[in-house]
Amino acid sequence: MNFNGFEGKLLVETEYGSIQGFSYIGGSSGFEAEIFLGIPYAEGPYGDLRFEKPKPPRSWNHTILQAINYGFACVSTENPYNKFTNYSEDCLTLNLIRPASPSPDLAGYPIIIWIFGETFESGTSSNFGYQNIIDNLVSHGIIFISFNYRLGPFGFFTSGNELAKGNFGLWDQLEALKFVNKIGTSFGGNLNKITLFGESAGAASISWLTLNSEATKYFSQAFIMSGSVESGWAHSNITIRFSRSFIALLGCDENLDVMSCMKKQSIQDIQYAAKTVSLHVGIESFSVSKLAESEHYYSILFHPWFDNDFVKANTVEEAIQSAPKINIVMSLNSQEAIPWVFHSSSPLYLSQQDITNYGSSNFIESVKKLLDGEHCFGENQEKVAQKIIEFYQAQSLQYSKNAFLQTYVQLLSDIQFNVPFIREALKRAENGQNVFVFRNSFVSDKNRNFVVDGVGHGSELDIFFGNPPLKGSNEEVVQKRFIEILLNFVKLGYVCL
C-alpha cells in the first residue's frame, strides 16, 4: 500500500486536494501520531444551504489545506450546556488521528469513527482533544476519526412535510461517512474495517445510521453506549409540534415562502426562539411522555423523527426488520439517571432535604406525578400506577441504603434508557443480527455518588477519553479491559470477554 505522509512531510494527497497535518507524541504512551484537524467534509450549511441536506465539499486542488486546528463547533441551542463561543454554521468538519508509522497489515489500519452525544443540541468533535485519544486508542494501531454535525434547530428542525423534512444532523453524519470512504485509504485506513462508536445521542445517531441502507455501505459494525433509537428523546413526532411553534415565534408561519423566511433569520434569533419554545412548551409537565422526550437536564426539542426519508420506515420495528444485518455492541451504565436527580439544572432535581428524607411515600408521589396527565392508560391509569409502585417497591429491597431514592433513580433509568435499550437489542437479535450486550457497573472514585450506588450517564467517557488512572489502581484495570473489548471488536468483529 502506498501510505501517504509518512516521510516527515505530513502532506496527504486526496481526490479533493492536499491536506497538511502535524505530528504529536502521546503524553503517557510516548506514541507518535499524526493529526489532521478541521477537514471540511461538506459545504458550509448556511445561507441557501441552511435547513437543506448537506452537499459534498468543493475541492481545494490549487492550494494546501492546513489541517492544524479544530473547525468551528456547530451552532447549538441557547441552553445551560452551550459552552462554546467559537461556533459557526460553517462547521461540517472532520478530524483524523493516525499512527505515524504504516500499518504492518497491507490492508491498512482499522478505523474508528466517533460520534459525540450531548442531546442533539450541543457538543463538538473537539470535546476530548487528542492526547488521550492517542494514548488510549490510536497507540493500539487504529485510525480515529471524529466530526461535527448540525445541532438543535439547525440540525433537526422540521416542517413535517416536503418543505423541510428535517434530520439534517443525521444526513450530515451520512455525508461524513461517505467522505471517509473517499479519503480513508489515502490516510492508510482499511475501508473494510470501519466501526462507528458513540455515546448518548451519538449512540442513538448510530442506531439511526444502522437503519439506513445507504449508510451501512460505509461502515462495518457499531459500538454504542447509553443510547438507543427506541428512546423517546431519540425519535418522536413531537419535534414537528415544537418546530411549528418555533416557526411561529420567528414570524414565518404566515409567510408564503416559509423556508425562505427561515433561512433569512439570524443565528441569534433562531437561538432565542428555540430557548423560548423550550421554556413554554418544553418542560410544561413531568409526565412519562415528557420525561421520555428529555435527556440530560432540559427537554430535547429538536431530535430525529421517522420522516420516511432518512429511514424508509415508520417505526423502529419496521426499520430493523428491513435493515442490513451488522454486528453491534450495546452497553449501558447501571444507573443512567443519576445526573437527572442530582444536577440542580434538572427539572427532576431533588434538593438535599428531599434526598435526605426521601422514602416510600415520596416514591409513590413521584410515580403518580410521572403518570399525571397521561391518557394512554385511560380508566386503568390508577391500576397501572399501582402495578408500577408494587414492582419497584419490591426492587427497593435490593438496596442497603436510601432504598427508595435508589429505586426512583432506577425507574428514571428504565424509562429513559434501559427499556428502550432492551427493546432494540431484542428486536435486532430476533432479526438475525449479532448483538453483544454488556452493563457497566464499575464505579470509579472520580464518578462516585455517595448517596446512590451505580454508574451514571456519561461515566464511561472517562474510560476511553480520560487521563491515565493511577498505576495499579482498579481504575487502570477497568480502563484496560474496556479498551481491550472495544479494540478486539474493532479489529476482529466480535467481543472477547
Automatic annotation (TrEMBL):
InterPro entries for the chain: AB_hydrolase_fold (IPR029058), CarbesteraseB (IPR002018), Carboxylesterase_B_AS (IPR019826), Carboxylesterase_B_CS (IPR019819), Type-B_Carboxylest/Lipase (IPR050309)
UniProt xrefs under PROSITE patterns: CARBOXYLESTERASE_B_1, CARBOXYLESTERASE_B_2
Domain Carboxylesterase type B: 11-493
Keywords: Hydrolase, Serine esterase
Enzyme class: hydrolase
GO molecular function, one term: carboxylic ester hydrolase activity
Stored Gene3D superfamilies: alpha/beta hydrolase
EC number: 3.1.1.-
Signal peptide interval: none
Family (UniProt): Belongs to the type-B carboxylesterase/lipase family.
Protein name: Carboxylic ester hydrolase
